[in-house]
Amino acid sequence: MNATYALLDIRRMVRTPAIVIFAFVMPVAMYVLFGAIQNYGNLPVPHGNVKATVMASLALYGAATAASGLGASSALEQDAGWGRQLATTPMTQGKYLLTKVVAIQIVAAVPVALVLLVGALSGARIDGIGWLWTFLLAWVCCIPYTVFGLAIAMFIRNENAATLVSFFVLAFAFLGNVFMPLGGFMLKLSRFTPLWGVNLLPRWPIMGGYEMTIHEPVEVNLSYAIMSAVVWAGVFAVLAWLASRRHQDR
What we know:
Blueprint: H1 3-14, H2 17-36, E1 44-45, E2 48-49, H3 50-79, H4 82-86, H5 93-121, H6 130-140, H7 143-156, H8 160-175, H9 184-190, H10 194-207, E3 210-211, E4 218-219, H11 222-249
Antiparallel strand pairs: 1-2, 3-4
């Protein structure tokens, strides 16, 4: 990995207006709107309060938005000839990819940290070391969304890819029980969407084995959430592989 290039890339990424607005500011604002200022926010849940569950979900959403958007931008950089310029330097393709992934993951930690900081200051409560687990799980679970962003950008191959990726993540969040508790058919449908499993994982230190619904929390098996996260990570990886093959065939 090239540390100098990674630092320069991180500085560029955190100054990107779309990342600042949609990945940093929007999740914090949504947490304040849907969690911090709501009367139900202080209601207790098994290992914390409702504010903490809203906080965990929006931290994950911010990280997934940052990772997918930056992944898409990276693929477009390669298409624009940046890869050929780097080929004239001592940096190998492997080092470039590793540096890029590390830089994206570091930037993806920013919205997680911001939302948890605002949550801590506004009364979100998690028992014991649950804060640490919530942070780590929200951060780690966004990794497949870097691959998702790369895949969509390699299929679309124009500047609209980043916008489309952001739209998909937003739609996944609405359908995946991230923004608001669902019920009935929508709750059943959510269990087959990409963000359902990864949304449950950072909430696990707060909710234990329960999932928020429109009526009351329902028990859910941890293995289902892990299985969902792994399956969708595999789907994104296959999409990226197919997109790469399509590009090579051209």
